[in-house]
Amino acid sequence: MTTSDILRAALVGRLTENGTLTDAAWAKAATAVPRELFAGSYFVPIEGSTPTGYRTVHPADPGWLEGVYTDQTLITQLDGRTSPEDAGEQSVTGAPSSSSTLPSLVLDMWQRLGADAGHRVLEVGTGTGYSTALGAHRLGDRNITSIEYDPLVAARAASALRAAGYAPRLLTGDGLDGDPEGGPFDRLIATCSVRYLPMAWLRQVEPGGRILVTLSGWSYANALALLDVTGPGEATGRFLPGYTSFMIARPHDRPPRPVLALLPGEERASRIDPAKLDTWTGSWVAQLAAPSAERMGSGGNQILSDVATGSQARTVPDAAGGWTVVQRGPLRLWDRVETAIEAWQGAGEPQQDAFGITVSAAGQRVWLGSADGPGWDLPV
Ligand SMILES: C[S@@+](CC[C@H](N)C(=O)[O-])C[C@H]1O[C@@H](n2cnc3c(N)ncnc32)[C@H](O)[C@@H]1O
Question: CATH fold of 103-251, please?
């Protein structure tokens, strides 16, 4: 046995013991696929740095292989252009734009997708190709199609997959369009997040099929949804428990905005504690209520800036222990967020798994509790 085999078996053992790996066939795939073939050099965040700085770990560095078999995400690109090879020995900053997702999440998602022998699967976001290789091992090359947006990332994944002995159908392009020539599919799994479900997916996944995707938005709050396709262009599903987040699909990312100037506006007292927006689910609810807004700030000092209309809302603590909100522009962002947060609080502040989603040609709606409960339209 090589060191790689030993480390891989140990990781599979840990993921089995902690209850992540429950399906023997996926455990077999994880035992067979050498993650190091897909990782190459990677970025590691420098603890305590603000903004987050990254150092590079190269294959010749001590600890590189151990890092590959730690249950962590290996960042392989920043800002859509900087690879660890480009960074050399310098520490760098930037927004992660490609990675090998942590193995526990990849395997958990494959298991939740319920992909079985004979299912044709479309993966959106090939990244390093590691998750694609697991799928190809478990389901067979013929049943896996994977799409990557970034041509350099796609080329690296293609050669890693070849080196590992897998030959799934690989496409370079916008995975939000799906694969019109290759479908239909029984399952779709996305390892980048979206603001709304692309209608192409709903047409290419057959009724009775499933879609597993993280919904995110311009405030970068996330929730993982599992949808059943109920008819052509129609799906319904629930959000799953846990804290899954993925980088947003490049065409769904928010447009750049000019430097933010905080301007005067209408003032009133806030009915909710703005710090609720710092919580995992509070930030998600706020994003549902104001989907074209970017959220900045923290605690009592929240700032919402609407990318589409220039509307603003900001909160400041007041002398009486409450908060004043200042709003301006055509959208009263805080009014919307406040109403949504109050509805969520009224339901006992549940996490994302209390929410569901309904999609049809008429629109896409995320709801709380049941389809006739409080709901928010996605910005399709
Ligand atoms: C988290 S990484 C993928 C991880 C990958 N599954 C793995 O195991 O290595 C997300 C990938 O999605 C890609 N991506 C972003 N937008 C996309 C789009 N519209 N279509 C296809 N891929 C996209 C990014 O370039 C990035 O490589």
Answer: Rossmann fold (3.40.50)
